[in-house]
Amino acid sequence: MDESLRVCDVEKYYGTKNNITKAVNQVSFTVEKGEFTGIMGPSGSGKTTLLNLLSTIDRVTAGHIYYGDTDITELDEPTGALDSRSAQMLLNTFCRMNEELGATILMVTHDAFSASYCKRILFLKDGGIFNELIRGRKSRREFLNEILDVLALTGGDSNYVK
Ligand SMILES: Nc1ncnc2c1ncn2[C@@H]1O[C@H](COP(=O)(O)OP(=O)(O)OP(=O)(O)O)[C@@H](O)[C@H]1O
Ligand SMILES: [Mg+2]
Predict the structure, then answer these.
(1) Better-predicted residue by pLDDT, 102 or 144
(2) In this structure, which residue's CA is closest to atom 5 in ligand 1?
(3) How far is the CA of 44 from the centre of ligand 1 (A)?
(4) What is this structure's pTM?
(5) Residue closest by Cα to atom 31 of ligand 1
């Protein structure tokens, strides 16, 4: 991305008047150029819905998403179908793209190990952002432990953790 991505008060509702699911509920965040940010959250927390909104596959019910003139079709769940060795190679490639080329990466994952490669993690729950972790100067192992702590506290997807 050439520009930062700005997500402003985005909401996505599914269903009818009498039976509404707030799949994404009042979500706001910014991803600056060069960041490597993860989005985590239990099943049903709105990750896929959010990605579909960011990639314009789906339309927001309310709110705004601003980005530059870049095509965002690359956003997906990149390691989902890979074996662990290929996934690790891809994650290392993401790190190098981020650090050496200044590429902006936004990745959705269930997997704490994959997430530990990110520099920031946003945690979704019930359609909203409920926590944020910044890696800072911590080692990847320390960051992984922090991520696992958040997942454990929130009853997150421990069954997805390798
Ligand atoms: N097309 C749809 N019609 C109705 N409800 C939907 C639709 N897509 C998603 N939802 C609902 O919106 C909420 C968020 O779903 P979403 O698929 O975004 O979660 P997710 O975080 O990607 O989950 P998972 O980790 O299982 O992939 C859930 O309650 C889901 O049932
Ligand atoms: Mg999903």
Answers:
(1) 144
(2) 14
(3) 5
(4) 0.68
(5) 44
